[in-house]
Amino acid sequence: MRVLVTGSSGFVGSHLVEELVRRKYTVRVLLRSAGIPKWFRDLPLEIVIAGYNDAGALRKAVDKVDIIFHVGGVTKALTPAGYLEGNALPTKALLDAVVAAKTRLKRFVLVSSHAMIGPVGSATESSCEDDVPHPVEEYGRSKLAAELVARSYSHLVPVTIVRPPTVYGPRDVDCLEIFKMIKNGINLYYGNAKKYTSLIYVDDLVEGMIRAAISPQAVSRAYFICNDEAVTWREFQTAVKKVMKRRALTLHVPACTTRIAVFFGELAMKCTKRPVILNREKAKLGRPRFWIASNKRARRELRFEPKHSMEEGLAITYRWYLDNGWL
C-alpha cells in the first residue's frame, strides 16, 4: 500500500517513516521545503513538496494514497490563532484535498494529543477516549479543533484518531534536556517531582499508530496509545540517572519560579517574533498534577501492548544520544 506521512521530518514522524519502509509500504512524505532530513537519505521515499495552502499540490500529494498519517502540527505558537493555523487548518486542507482528488482512501489517521482532553483529578483516575474534553491551554484546544474537523469529514473519509501522551525516545529534543542536566550533575524539579504523566516510547507509539491505521474496528474511533501505568517525574528522572549511571545533586525549585522563566520567554517572543518553549501556554500545561490516560481501548480493540518498559526505552534513548553525539 502507498502511505502518505505529514510531519515526517519530526521526532515521531521520522520513526514512523522508517518503520513503514521496513514493513515494505510505499512511503510518500509531505515536506514543506526541499531539505531532506538526514535520516531519510538512504530510504526509498516519494518526496512531495507542498504547503497546506496549496490545494493543487495537496491533491497531487494525496492522489492514489491508501493511508494518510497526519503527524504534522505545531506545539508552540505566538498566538492562539497560530495554534489553530498549525493544527486545525492543515487537517482541513488535507481532508479537502482527499475529497477533491476523489482518492479511495482506506484510512486517515490524525495524530492528536492527550492535551486535547485535559488532566484528571487524582492518581487513581485516568482519561478515557469518550470523556468530555476540557483542554487547559491553546495547544490542547487546537488539537481538539483538529479532531472536530476530522470527525466532520467522517461521512466521506474513514478517520481514526490517535492521542499520544508524553513521548520519548531517540531524536527527542525535550527528553535530551533532562539527560544533559543530569550529565552536568544536576537533577532539577520545578515543582513537578510528584506530578504524574502517562508515557510511551516512540517505537511503541508507532506500532499503535500502524495498528490503528489497518484495523477495521478503528474507523471513527479514538485511542490513547500509552503505557499501562503513569509515572511521576521523580520516577522518570531517577530512571534517567540509573541508565546513565550518574549521581546528581537534586534541587527542588518552587513552581512559582516558572513565572519568571515564562515572563522572559514571553518577552523573547515579543522581541524576536518567534515562539519559544517557555511561554504562558506551556506553563498552563505543566500546572495540573495528573496527566494520566488509559490504554484499555487500544489493548482491547487494537491488541496493542507496549513492548518497552520505561527503563528499557530510556536505555535505548541514552545509547542513541551517545552514538549520535547529542550528549
Notable traits:
327 residues, alpha/beta, Rossmann fold, seven-stranded parallel sheet, three-stranded mixed sheet, 11 helices, globular
Structural commentary:
By secondary structure, the chain is of the alpha/beta class. The chain has a domain at about 1-165 and about 200-225 and about 290-305: Rossmann fold. Helix content is about 40%, strand content about 15%. The chain has eleven helices and 14 strands. The chain has helices at about 10-20, 55-60, 80-100, 140-150, 175-185, 200-215, 235-245, 260-270, 280-285, 295-300, 310-325, and strands at about 1-5, 25-30, 45-50, 65-70, 105-110, 160-165, 165-170, 185-190, 195, 200, 220-225, 230, 250, 290. It has a seven-stranded parallel sheet with strand order 3-2-1-4-5-6-11, with helices on both faces. Strand 1 (about 1-5), helix 1 and strand 2 form a beta-alpha-beta unit. The relative contact order is 0.14.
